[in-house]
Amino acid sequence: MPVPPPPAVPALDPDVSLAETDDGAVLLHQRTGRYWQLNRTGVQVLRRLTEGWPAERIAAELATRHQIDTDAAHGDVTRLIEGLTSARLLRMPS
Hints:
This protein is of the alpha+beta class. It has 3 helices and 5 strands; from the N terminus they run E-E-E-E-H-H-H-E.
C-alpha cells in the first residue's frame, strides 16, 4: 500500500486515536499500544497545530492567556511538538 503524502499542516498519525477527558485528552497509538496523556493546555496546543497555527502564534497566545514569558511558552510548545513527533503521534509537514 503506498504511503500517503505528508499533510499540509501537522496532523495526528492515522494510527492514533484521541479521547478527550475532563482533564485534557488521551492519545493512543493503535500499532504500538502506547498511551500519552495531555493536559488541557496540551490539547489546546495540539488543536492549534492541526488547524495550521505556527508554533510562534500558539506560544504568544499561551503567554498572554497564562501571563508567562513568550520564550518560555515557545519552549513548552516546541518540547510538546518534539515529544509528539518522536513518539510518532503527530506528523509534521515537510
